[in-house]
């Protein structure tokens, strides 16, 4: 039985990954801040360890075959690169250094699709494409890309596989995180939507990709975990159909988003935490689309329709009586 160490165990992807690992017969050590925060499946093969990412975790790496590093700072309100670097870069490098010292065979780093250059619906972005604006100005995406590059350039004994999930939707989104986009439209009489779009993937499928990468992922390779390229309008239409609602759909002019971004930039100059910024608002205006061909070919992932992801997310939110 292979032993795996997982960070970010209580988040959307982390919970789904642990469930999949246990179902596939792995022995799992999961780092959590509080054991009570983990709401996924529990078996005798799961050991929850309370601790901090910044701690010396090497004592847990004995006989561990693979580390899956999912934990990250994703808050879009932070206004300095250093706020992201501490978690997404520094801790990643420290964790990887401990893995190499302990002789861990494989290190899986969960990054972001936005470290890879996006494309159009006709020619979606692939793993070979360099990061593009506005994500080159995103402190979050920068910190993830810098961590990727360090791992790929400095690995010695431990194999490195980079996983780049697109926008994940599914169950166990306890915050919610990406599920906020569902609440943007769910139970609303009017939906204001940006004119851009992005790639959506079921969180279960992204978790499958992580599990498959343990065995099938190639050393020093990146894999986009991506599925359907959809405009926000089409994504919200799916929510409307699945939740049986008929709201008025109103597009947000790009100039309005640009003005909001300009306002956010000025607020940030005065150290006001806000998700408003020029690059965040620009991201809503573009269609950042990606291809999953490499993950289908190398990892043999079978992706589910995004309709299923939305259904699973909505059902989960209902079961937990979560509200927007």
Automatic annotation (TrEMBL):
GO cellular component: cytoplasm
SUPFAM superfamilies: NAD(P)-binding Rossmann-fold domains
Residue stretches making up the NAD-dependent epimerase/dehydratase domain: 4-224
Endpoints of the signal sequence: none
Alphabetical list of Gene3D superfamilies matching this protein: NAD(P)-binding Rossmann-like Domain
Superkingdom, taxonomy of origin: Bacteria
Single GO term (MF): aldehyde dehydrogenase (NAD+) activity
Classification via InterPro entries: Epimerase_deHydtase, NAD(P)-bd_dom_sf, NAD(P)-dependent_oxidoreduct
Pfam families: Epimerase
PANTHER family in the record: NAD(P)-BINDING DOMAIN-CONTAINING PROTEIN-RELATED, PROTEIN YEEZ
Name of this chain's protein: Dihydroflavonol 4-reductase
Source taxonomy: Bacteria, Pseudomonadati, Bacteroidota, Flavobacteriia, Flavobacteriales
């Amino acid at each position: 039985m292979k032993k795996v160490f997982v960070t970010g165990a209580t988040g959307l992807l982390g919970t789904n990954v642990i469930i999949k690992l246990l179902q596939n017969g792995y022995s799992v050590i999961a780092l959590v801040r509080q054991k009570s925060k983990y709401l996924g499946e529990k078996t005798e093969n799961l050991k929850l360890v309370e601790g901090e990412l910044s701690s010396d975790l090497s004592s847990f790496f004995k006989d561990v075959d693979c580390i899956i590093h999912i934990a990250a700072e994703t808050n879009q309100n932070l206004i300095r690169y250093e706020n992201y670097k501490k978690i997404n870069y520094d801790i990643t490098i420290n964790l990887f250094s401990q893995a190499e010292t302990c002789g861990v065979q494989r290190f899986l780093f969960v990054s972001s699709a936005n470290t890879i250059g996006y494309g159009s619906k006709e020619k979606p972005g692939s793993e070979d494409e360099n990061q593009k604006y506005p994500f080159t100005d995103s402190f979050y995406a920068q910190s993830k890309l810098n961590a990727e590059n360090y791992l790929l350039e400095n690995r010695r004994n431990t194999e490195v596989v980079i996983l780049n999930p697109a926008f994940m939707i599914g169950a166990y989104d306890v915050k919610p995180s990406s599920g906020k986009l569902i609440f943007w439209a769910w139970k609303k009489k009017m939906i204001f939507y940006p004119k851009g779009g992005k790639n959506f993937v079921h969180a279960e499928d992204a978790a499958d990709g992580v599990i498959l990468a343990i065995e099938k992922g190639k050393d020093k390779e990146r894999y986009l975990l991506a599925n359907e390229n959809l405009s926000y309008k089409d994504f919200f239409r799916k929510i409307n159909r699945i939740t049986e609602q008929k709201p008025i759909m109103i597009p947000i002019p790009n100039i309005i988003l640009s003005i909001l971004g300009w306002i956010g930039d000025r607020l940030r100059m005065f150290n006001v935490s806000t998700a408003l910024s020029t690059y965040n608002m620009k991201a809503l205006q573009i269609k950042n689309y990606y291809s999953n061909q490499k993950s289908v070919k190398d990892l043999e992932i079978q992706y589910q329709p995004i309709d299923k992801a939305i259904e699973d997310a909505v059902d989960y939110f209902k079961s937990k009586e979560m509200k927007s």
